[in-house]
Design a protein that fits this description.
The chain has 357 residues and is α/β, with parallel strands linked by helices. Among the domains are: 33 residues; 103 residues; 42 residues; 40 residues, no CATH class. The chain is built from 13 helices and seven strands. It has a seven-stranded mixed sheet with strand order 1-4-3-2-6-5-7, with no helix packed on it. The mean pLDDT is 79.
C-alpha cells in the first residue's frame, strides 16, 4: 500500500497537470476566438444609433477590420431624437487610442450577408486622436436585412426570368420551335448540311479560279488592269496637284480664285443695289408705280378681250359673226383666183386700149 506522501505527491502532480491543461485551453480559446486581452488597459468610447440591429453585449469592435475591443453595453437612451435612441458603450484597448482620429466614424458591418454583426470604426483624417469617454460619430447605414428586403423585388424578377428561361430550354430539348427543330430535327440537319456542302463547292470553285469571282481573285491580267487604272488615276491626281490641265488650274491658279472672289463681290453689290431699289430691276422690286402700270395694262387687256368675246369692233365681229367670216373667206378666194389668172396671162391685164373719137 503506497504511503500518504506518495499519494499526496501524485495528487499534486495531477492537479498541476490539470491547471496547466486549463491554462493551455484558455490560451487556445483566446487565440482562436480573438477575444480581448483581459489584462490590457482599456478606455471607453460611445456611439449612438437609431437601432441595435440585434447586436448583443460582447460583440466585436474593429478598426478598419482589425479587432480592437468589444461592445460592453447596449442600452436605450430615451432621447426624443430617434437617431440617438440606442447607446453603445465600447471598450477599446488603450494602445489603439493613438490610431483613432477624432473625426472617425463607426457603423454596422457583417462578415457576410447572414454573418455576425460587429461595429467597424473607419479612421478619419484629423491629427488629434480620441479621448476616453468621447463620442464617435455614427454612420447612417441601412441594415443588411433592410438591404435584402429592398432587393427582394429584383430577386423575384430574376426568379421569374429564370423560370421562363428554364421553360424555353425545356421546349428546345423537346424539339419545339425553329431552334428546337434545328437542334433535333434530322431533316433540318440534312438541309443545313446540304447548304454547307454547296458552300464548300463554291469556295473550291473560287479557290481554283473558276467563274467570274474566281477570275477576279486569281486572274493576273485583271490585276494588271486594275493596277494600271490605279497608276493612271495616280498620274491624273499628280497632274492636278501640279496645276496641269483645266482641273489643275482650278485647284492651283490663284487668278481663278481672284476672279471668283471678284464675281462674288460684284454679285453682292448687285444684290445690295436691288435691295436699295436702284436701276430698273430695283424699281421693279420696290416701286409701286410700275406695279400699278402693269396692273392697269392687264386691266385694259382684259377689257379688250371682253369686248372681242362680246363681238364688239371689227375683230369682235370677225370672231363672232359668221357672215363676215364667210365674206372675208370669199374675198380671199377671189383674190387668190385673180392672182393665179394674172400669173397665167399677165398680158390680159397689162394691154392698154386707145380709142379715138
Amino acid at each position: 500500500m503506497p504511503s500518504p506522501k506518495k499519494v499526496a505527491w501524485s495528487q499534486l502532480k495531477v492537479g498541476i497537470m490539470a491547471m496547466v491543461a486549463l491554462v493551455i485551453l484558455a490560451v487556445l480559446v483566446f487565440l482562436m476566438t480573438g477575444a480581448n486581452n483581459p489584462f490590457s488597459e482599456k478606455f471607453i468610447l460611445y456611439a449612438f444609433f437609431p437601432d441595435s440591429v440585434a447586436m448583443t453585449d460582447g460583440s466585436a469592435v474593429r478598426l478598419n477590420g482589425i479587432l480592437v475591443g468589444k461592445v460592453s453595453r447596449i442600452e436605450l437612451t430615451g432621447d426624443a431624437n430617434n437617431k440617438r435612441a440606442v447607446r453603445m458603450t465600447m471598450e477599446i484597448e488603450e494602445h489603439f487610442k493613438g490610431n483613432i482620429p477624432k473625426d472617425s466614424e463607426v457603423g454596422y458591418s457583417a462578415e457576410n450577408v447572414l454573418g455576425t454583426k460587429y461595429l467597424n470604426i473607419e479612421r478619419g483624417q484629423s491629427r488629434e486622436h480620441v479621448q476616453a469617454g468621447a463620442e464617435i460619430k455614427s454612420k447612417d447605414e441601412k441594415d443588411v436585412m433592410e438591404m435584402l428586403q429592398s432587393a427582394s423585388p429584383l430577386l423575384e424578377s430574376m426568379q421569374s426570368i429564370l423560370k421562363r428561361v428554364d421553360g424555353l430550354v425545356a421546349q428546345l430539348e423537346a424539339g419545339k420551335g425553329s431552334i428546337g427543330r434545328l437542334l433535333y430535327d434530322d431533316e433540318m440537319y440534312r438541309k443545313v448540311d446540304a447548304i454547307l456542302a454547296d458552300f464548300q463547292k463554291v469556295t473550291r470553285a473560287l479557290a481554283s479560279g473558276q467563274g467570274t469571282l474566281g477570275a477576279m481573285l486569281y486572274d493576273q491580267s485583271l490585276y494588271n488592269e486594275v493596277r494600271g487604272t490605279v497608276k493612271r488615276l495616280d498620274s491624273v491626281i499628280e497632274g492636278i496637284q501640279k496645276g496641269e490641265g483645266t482641273a489643275g488650274k482650278l485647284v492651283k491658279d490663284p487668278a481663278l480664285y481672284d476672279e471668283l472672289r471678284q464675281s462674288s463681290t460684284e454679285l453682292k453689290t448687285l444684290l445690295a443695289n436691288l435691295n436699295a431699289g436702284q436701276g430698273s430691276a430695283g424699281k421693279l422690286l420696290h416701286e409701286d408705280t410700275l406695279h400699278n402700270e402693269v396692273i392697269a395694262t392687264l386691266n385694259r387687256l382684259n377689257s379688250t378681250l371682253d369686248k372681242l368675246n362680246a363681238g364688239q369692233g371689227t375683230l369682235g365681229q370677225l370672231m363672232v359673226n359668221p357672215a363676215l367670216y364667210e365674206n372675208l373667206t370669199g374675198t380671199m378666194a377671189e383674190t387668190s383666183a385673180l392672182v393665179k389668172d394674172f400669173r397665167k396671162n399677165p398680158k390680159k391685164f397689162l394691154t392698154i386700149q386707145l380709142k379715138l373719137f
